[in-house]
């Protein structure tokens, strides 16, 4: 007699399939059938008796009857690297501190009792005064100014709210690549199927944003960055270092606070920027981490003088041209993919990014304005999987690549209105980049804040083209000009600390930890302890002998550093009209005002 056949149901994230088997079939043979049916490698998945990932079925010679698997039983398949069912929280993911803090907050918008509409007592609540959810669109639209995007944590509350408490909520990262491991057909371009083919993408305005506000701690940070353009006319790019804090103007909002700008090696002209390999990148990240800072974004200039006599700049980025070019969107997407946002609700352990983009450009009043942006998660996916290209002659347009024998690219669409006002779907070839952009308010505080309290200006790195170099001569000049007697205030400069760590004569990478702790915690006692170290004594000795001069022939400032006259061999920019003047002159050739 023929052995009775069993039908075993196998539930996977892509659906359920029925696998024929017998009682005497071994678990190893059964798993091979499952792998073939679902298109997995033999070790690309795990099967469990229960949905909560208990009772795993291993590849062994035990029969299904010994494993107590009967006809009609349901088994659960999880691909390798999967966090399990949708809505499962990955407790192993270490989220950012600000995310952990906001996850514990109530987030609701509390309202006072309305004297005209509320007809109840002081302890009662009605529809006119009951607290609102942080994702309430009507409330956000009536703020001044209106908020188009809810905060990311408000979006999470919306997903995890309701009767099911987010049991089926999951944040899925978009993929534009063919799923690997499909063995039912030859690989692309000879074959493709619905199981491994990525879905088409329809671009939509993202309803949330990961960062709701960008704030520079003080104007000095931005002014020093703009000095390069003022003195050369060339554009400039830098990385923003700071921290993420709560933005209280928006429910459960996040603010990126900028404490310093690091300018990496780059080739710049009036119309272009080219980033070069940075040998100091790892050291900068290490210093920032020890100071309690992280890389929160990048900034670049797009400035062109309108009238040098009154210091105005051209207003070039507006609704009639573009706010971010396609090439800048692709660059922003590249940076955001490098800085993913840790998230427990995503199977991959990350979702989106908090990395921001700031553009220093001309505003409607022809003054320099700082505009903040991010690109959407859809744009990040298109950039990560190399599906998006810029258009050569139209900076405001991108172009979704077409499939080739080397790469399959899913169709990308966007919706717009035709001349009759109807919604029409267009293929994204070309693509207006405003579908990819999220704008973020950029501000300066009324009361300036200072993570780095030094009042003197140590030269910024990688500005050799201006004659501004980081060496022991410039350090000696810096120390001699410092009038403060508080050692912490003198060394509390990001660019100075970077020089002390990365200089080639005496790098202090392994012995500067105490000083970095002192700057981080504003502890003068720690700074004084480090000042007494051999390393600082050697630094002072090197400063006193710069240029081959004996220390006895140099004058010393308040800090005991050598007093070296400032160089007068470089061109200088007028603080009043930004005109570039010849070396050695003490009055501006344009406005006749004194140099200082």
From TrEMBL:
Pathway: Protein degradation; proteasomal ubiquitin-dependent pathway. Keywords: Acetylation, Chaperone, Cytoplasm, Endoplasmic reticulum, Metal-binding, Nucleus, Zinc, Zinc-finger. Coiled coil: none annotated. Its main location: cytoplasm. GO terms for molecular function: ubiquitin binding; ubiquitin protein ligase binding; zinc ion binding. One of its GO terms (biological process) is retrograde protein transport, ER to cytosol. InterPro entries: MPN (IPR037518), Npl4 (IPR016563), NPL4_C (IPR007717), Npl4_Ub-like_dom (IPR024682), NPL4_Zn-bd_put (IPR007716), Ubiquitin-like_domsf (IPR029071), Znf_RanBP2 (IPR001876), Znf_RanBP2_sf (IPR036443). PROSITE patterns: MPN (PS50249), ZF_RANBP2_1 (PS01358), ZF_RANBP2_2 (PS50199). It is found in: Cytoplasm, Cytosol; Endoplasmic reticulum; Nucleus. GO terms for cellular component: cytosol; nucleus; VCP-NPL4-UFD1 AAA ATPase complex. It holds the Pfam family NPL4. Residues 214-351 form the MPN domain. Residues 568-596 form the RanBP2-type domain. Belongs to the NPL4 family. PANTHER family: NUCLEAR PROTEIN LOCALIZATION 4, NUCLEAR PROTEIN LOCALIZATION PROTEIN 4 HOMOLOG. Heterodimer with UFD1. The heterodimer binds ubiquitinated proteins. The heterodimer binds to VCP and inhibits Golgi membrane fusion. Interacts with ZFAND2B; probably through VCP. The ternary complex containing UFD1, VCP and NPLOC4 binds ubiquitinated proteins and is necessary for the export of misfolded proteins from the ER to the cytoplasm, where they are degraded by the proteasome. The NPLOC4-UFD1-VCP complex regulates spindle disassembly at the end of mitosis and is necessary for the formation of a closed nuclear envelope. Acts as a negative regulator of type I interferon production via the complex formed with VCP and UFD1, which binds to RIGI and recruits RNF125 to promote ubiquitination and degradation of RIGI. This is Nuclear protein localization protein 4 homolog. It comes from Myripristis murdjan. The lineage of its organism: Eukaryota, Metazoa, Chordata, Craniata, Vertebrata.
